[in-house]
Amino acid sequence: MTRDLIMLPPLDETTEAWALAVAQAAPGLRVRIAPDRAAALQLLPQAEAAFGTLDAGLLAAAGKLQWLQAPMAAPPAGFFFPELVAHPVQVTNFRGIYNDHVATHAVAMLLALARGLPTYMRQQTRGEWIRHLADKDILHLPQSTVLVVGVGGIGAEIGRMVSAFGAKVIGIDPRRADLPVGFAAIFPPQELDRLLALADAVILTLPHTPESEGLIDAARLALMRPHGLLVNIGRGATVRLDAVLAALRQQRLGGVALDVFEEEPLPPDHPLWQEPRALLTPHVAVVGPYIVERRLAVLCDNAQRFEAGRPLINVVDKALWY
User: Fold this and answer.
1) pLDDT of residue 74
2) How many whole angstroms separate alpha carbon 152 and alpha carbon 237?
3) Residue from 235, 240, 277, 295 carrying the catalytic annotation
4) Catalytic pick from 225, 227, 270, 283?
5) How do residues 23-52 score in pLDDT, each as one tens digit?
6) Is 307 a catalytic residue?
7) How far apart are the C-alpha atoms of 238 and 77, rounded to whole Å?
8) Is the dihedral of CA 218, 219, 222, 224 positive or negative?
9) Which of 259, 282, 287 has the alpha carbon at shortest distance from 101?
10) What domains are defined for the chain?
């Protein structure tokens, strides 16, 4: 029996090619494209599967829906609304496809902070030759402790890479029972406050969930060492920017590197742009080759699994948003 998979709006230049690829990978699925909301409302009542983003109205129309492939590795707040969480539909995402790119970006940011590069980058634009960093201004990684908060695929790869520089790497994760390569130990989330006080650098890889929103605030920044470094390549909502700015200005934080922000784009007049110990990139850690191909491969794999009645990959706990 043929089953329908709906490609939901908004569409982009890849939609038709992806629809064709999915149809070829799983011939038992009829792949249909909904160019707008009206078309989606018309097609969803017959659909067993969908790719994209639903709202409460679209979900209510999808009486047969069994599988929803989210269009991102970590969809933004609002994707998992109460009706979707309560619905029996299985949701899958694209986690895992960015591990190498995001981990490399995070480690590059850490190394830049550890060597004081933000200061020298600013001097370069002014043509200034000032050799002002003292030994104490350098984070010597072989004698440091790096805390990775969130040891999924990205966090595990970060730990492996950082350990190669001689750092002691510890992690926090609510699910992980094994010890990935490079990690000395992994602790449950309730240990966060204690470990912040022990870490020379903290790297956040967290998704945006009800529990992670505002996780790093003024109180937690106060627990960090005054020379401590903070790197966030997870989701912007996990770090309070006003608290970071205050900690930098009050010399209570050694440096910060952010690829994600509470507000995106970060306004051009935001004072963090001018902070000498801040390194900011515009949500580009995911950029790198083969991402489009990897996303399509996950979608096709899950389409084949759905068609054959086999377990899907990258299934999300909807209540936790990841």
Assistant:
1) 87
2) 18
3) 235
4) 283
5) 999 999 999 999 999 999 999 999 999 999
6) no
7) 12
8) negative
9) 287
10) 3-97+289-308 (3.40.50.720), 99-280 (3.40.50.720)
pLDDT at 76 over 80: yes
235 is catalytic: yes
* Statement: residue 104 has pLDDT above 90: yes
Q: Strand (E) positions, the chain?
A: 3-7, 29-33, 47-51, 67-69, 90-92, 145-149, 168-172, 183-187, 201-204, 229-232, 255-258, 278-280
**pLDDT value of residue 258:** 98
Task: Indicate the angle between helix axes 99-114 and 153-163, nearest 10 degrees.
Answer: 40
Catalytic residue of the set 16, 83, 263, 264: 264
Average per-residue pLDDT for the chain: 96
Please state whether the predicted TM-score (pTM) of the whole model is above 0.85. yes
CA distance between the termini of the chain: 32
Is residue 200 a contact partner of residue 147, using CB atoms and an 8 Å limit? Answer: no
